[in-house]
Amino acid sequence: MIDIAILRENPEAVKENMRKKFQHDRLHLVDEAYELDKEYREALTKASELRAMRNSLSKEIGQFMREGKKDLAEENKRKVSEMADTLKELEAKEVELGPKLKEVMMKIPNFIDDSVPIGKDDSENVEIQKYGDPVVPDYEIPYHADIITKLNGLDKEASGRTSGNGFYYLMGDIARLSSAMLSYARDFMIDKGFTYCIPPFMIRSDVVTGVMSFEEMDAMMYKIEGEDLYLIGTSEHSMIGKFKDQIVKEEELPITLTSYSPCFRKEVGAHGIEERGIYRVHQFEKQEMVVLCKPEEAMEWYDKMWSYTVELFRSLDIPVRTLECCSGDLADLKVKSCDVEAWSPRQKKYFEVGSCSTLGDAQARRLGIRTKGERGTYYVATLNNTVLASTRALIAFIENNYNEDGSISIPEVLRPYMGGKERIG
User: Which residues form the Aminoacyl-transfer RNA synthetases class-II family profile domain (predicted)?
Assistant: First the structure.
């Protein structure tokens, strides 16, 4: 959510930002918000003036009564009585217009950074840099589900019976490998100075709407029937929500956290759920990183955060590249975002394994997360980044460490988490 002062002073700048995101069909929201804000502020001003007049007249009533000026006292009583009806109407208008204005403002996208490339969708994202040499071996690499199934590590048939499409059973050494990668990612981030956290896996609706747009909410979140609770799609949701309505001490910034959680996603959209494999599923596990910092430090942290993910994947012998997300591919709250993509030797192309975003103060405004220092009280900046998402990281790992004999090599950094195993086969 942007600062409404910007919309009041320069609504055209807000519209231009929306045009850069190719949201031409939503430009009317700026005009709606402008008029609602104007009407709301007029109601607030008039109500405030009436209350001041009422208080003044009420004081005079007592004074007139003491002085024996009953006629003047009665006249003031009549005026106060007339004001009560008008004040009631204005207060009702405040109650009506305030939430309406907030709802419209929450649909207006955040300002993107000047460095973001302009493009309509993810097909126009821009490659930044490659890390490691993408290798295609001279032997065939089967589909990841076939590799895992042959190693007795995947049962989609059973998960279909228990849960339906989009779920899976991981078993044996493959399940252990998935847990080992998450544990390694956790310790990797702790070594970077981040504080480890396990958050709630369900959050209330006011936290959900604080961390994402209404469109994202509808496409991603599972609601618990009969309760004001949602299953989290990523631990970023509850980690940012942790600071809701708080004033953080400026000297405590930056706050750097790394969190583990299962993630639940409806995955509504054109891509669909993968029937055989585990690339696009309803449930997975993730190690996340979240930073709260001063706004002027956000870009510095943004660059640090995605570089940590690159470093992690390279330590697992997985070539990766970074991809700058274009304007049309940015969710409404994001200022700037990049994807980390891993090399797939089977497909001979890269695929997304993580995403890093800075959201400016958009989430902080929605959730009331502020800090206080020498320059007064202001909203913090929030950032998030995928350290490792279990299923996609597992696919990348298996393909890039697959041997001709059907076994999977375990890099040295993972062996302590695998009981010393050097390969699975």
Answer: 143-411
Q: What is the pTM of this model?
A: 0.89
- Which residues are paired to 255 by β-bridges? 292
Whether residue 409 is contained in a domain is answered as: yes
Query: What are the beta bridge partners of residue 321?
Result: 130, 341
In a domain, 43, yes or no: yes
Whole-angstrom distance, CA of residue 205 vs CA of residue 210:
8
Same domain, 139 and 90: no
Q: Residue 399's pLDDT band (boundaries 50, 70, 90)?
A: very high
Q: Looking at the structure, do residues 156 and 302 belong to the same domain, yes or no?
A: yes
CA distance 232 to 203: 7
What is the distance between the terminal CA atoms of the chain, rounded to a whole angstrom? 51
Query: How confident is the model over 325-335, as a mean pLDDT?
Result: 97
Question: By three-state DSSP, how is residue 333 classified?
Answer: coil
From CA 425, how far away is CA 241, in angstroms rounded? 43
The range of the structural domain enclosing residue 368 comes to: 122-424
Whichever domain contains 298, its CATH number is 3.30.930.10
Tally of domains within the chain: 2
Evaluate whether residue 200 is within a structural domain: yes
Rounded CA-CA distance 66/73 in Å is 10
- In this prediction, residue 60 has a pLDDT band, given cuts at 50, 70 and 90, of confident
